Amino acid sequence: MRCSLLSLLVPAVVLAAPAAALAQSPTYNVGKPLSQEEIQSFDFMIGPEGQGLPAGRGTVKEGEAIFAKRCEVCHGQNGEKGVLRRLTLGTPGKPYRGPFKADEKDSIAYYPYATIAWDYINRAMPVPKPGSLTHDEVYSLVAFLLYRNGIIQETDVMDAKSLPKVEMPNRHGFIPEVPVYPPEKKPSWW
Amino acid sequence: MDSKGSGRRQFLKHAGALAGVAAGAGAGAEWAAKGQSAKPEPHAQEPQDHRELLRRGARFSVDHITYYTPLQDYGGIITPASLHFVQYHASHFPDIDAAQHRLTIHGLVDRPISFSMDDLKRLPSVSRVHFVECHANSSLMIHTQGNQNMGLPVQFIHGMASCSEWTGVPLSVLLNMAGVKKEASWLVYEGADPGKFSHTVPLEKAMDDCFVAYGQNGETVRVEQGYPIRMIVPGWQGPHNVKYLSHIKVVDQPYHTWNESMNHSVARPDIGGKARWYQFQWGPKSVITRPSAGMAIPGKGYVQITGLAWSGGGKVSKVDISVDGGATWKEAKLQTPVHTKAHTRFTFDWNWEGQEAMLLSRCTDDQGEVQPSRAELYSHWGITGAEAQKPNRAIHFNAMQPWSVARDGSVHDAMFTS
Prior knowledge:
The structure holds two protein chains of two kinds. By secondary structure, chain A is mainly α. Chain A has a domain at about 55-165: Cytochrome Bc1 Complex, Chain D, domain 2. Chain A has helices at about 1-25, 35-40, 60-70, 70-75, 115-125, 135-150; strands spanning about 30-35, 55-60, 90, 95, 155-160, 175. In chain A, the strands form two sheets. In chain A, strands 2-5 form a two-stranded antiparallel ribbon. Chain A starts with a helix and ends in a 15-residue tail after the last strand. By secondary structure, chain B is an alpha+beta fold. Chain B is built from ten helices and 24 strands. In chain B, the strands form six sheets. Chain B has a five-stranded mixed β-sheet with strand order 5-4-13-8-9. In chain B, strands 6, 7, 10, 11 and 12 form a five-stranded antiparallel β-sheet that branches. Chain B has a five-stranded antiparallel β-sheet with strand order 19-18-22-23-24, with no helix packed on it. The termini of chain B are far apart. Chains A and B meet through strand 1, helix 2, helix 5 and strand 6 of A and strand 5, helix 4, strand 13, helix 9 and strand 15 of B.
């Protein structure tokens, strides 16, 4: 009797384990593991503290030359007056500190983090051929634009270490200061 | 039972025959033999006929393609896929080979993973009816910037909102396969369009009801809608629904992509010149699509007032109609079933006696939230005085749309005159 009870229980326990596992995470047998090398080949989503910034460096002077060749056609000389977005507010040595409204939002001075400029220029610029700039060229263009906006010095070099440390004049110009979810209780259309 | 059974057998027989044709045509892959097209082709992305482009109020520029849904032209709640709005940030749509396309999930996960399109279609699927709406839809600038090449006012003012039955894989299934680490709290993800459009979403929302869609209204997602896959983030501002989805990175903070931190944030008077960002979901909203500005009521007597209501917060529970500028209200009929975070068709029987009238619709959702008037929204946003009487760049606009009816039956946009 004791024996038969045991023999009934054992299979039940053995069966229960895979059943519970199935409920949590079925075995789909699809998808392919990704290696770190593969991830590095496509991952250029840059975090606000510089997470993901690749090796490379750029100067204001180098950026000026690249800008004239690749960007000026749309954004105008020094990014000041073109057919597309005006990229500068303020002048070298004298940053614009707001208020930002309407078209003033187009300037790099508006960004809460300097790293956003690297991420966006790298992924989306120049419009006719996005992704064609080298990492050094992107660092150089960011350096040039930050300089033209009065945010860094002409001699500053931008790389994965220095760029996240750049203090942006509009850093605290956003509500809520830190995005949270779920949001605080207000009408959804707030 | 028997007839059903034989019907099903008949169907399977035909499906098998069709699959044989598909496989014979060189589509290959095991799925073809099992009755599923191995190589779904996208529908024509760019209409060849200029009249079709006119119908969509299409606008092209060096870095944008825009189509407006002609909300005035159809009934029910489903936007035909060909008429779904487009707000695209490049000059041409990408030409993606679905057989080569992959979706990756990496970052704060135990098992970084890459999916082919065949992989995604083998996973559990869901089909859900949801609206997608551009964050700038109904913005006040468009009232004066729109013109007849962009269709009727209800099309160019409110037509960056459309509604489809989307089919795809819940994001939670994919994220669970990758194994999200404890410290994760947000996702950042991008598309394979020329500018690799990127956006973020909180992990909690991603696990709740987001999905990766490969089907739209019974067909493959169209090229201009993100072929072969796009993100669907139900009820939230349009830019979350990234098209041509290719990479998802799991992270521990919002990444403030250019789109959401810079392009889509809104400077508002009520917050002292600071900008509102991360607005997430759409509030309750509605618009009368017929009669609307640019139309004319042909004569006295019966007029069916009809339109669409929706809310990012849940289901539409009620739509009220006023024909006297808000002095009195009566409840409209809702087409059923009402889907959550989806367009809801309403109708209202009206007898027009030739008088001047002011038509308004007001949506209430199942969270108890009520669509505001323009005055209520402006007072909330701190827009007062002369500023409140002119168009401005405020977006995320969900206030009521007034249409005025003149004695001759002509209908006009009364946003700034009511």
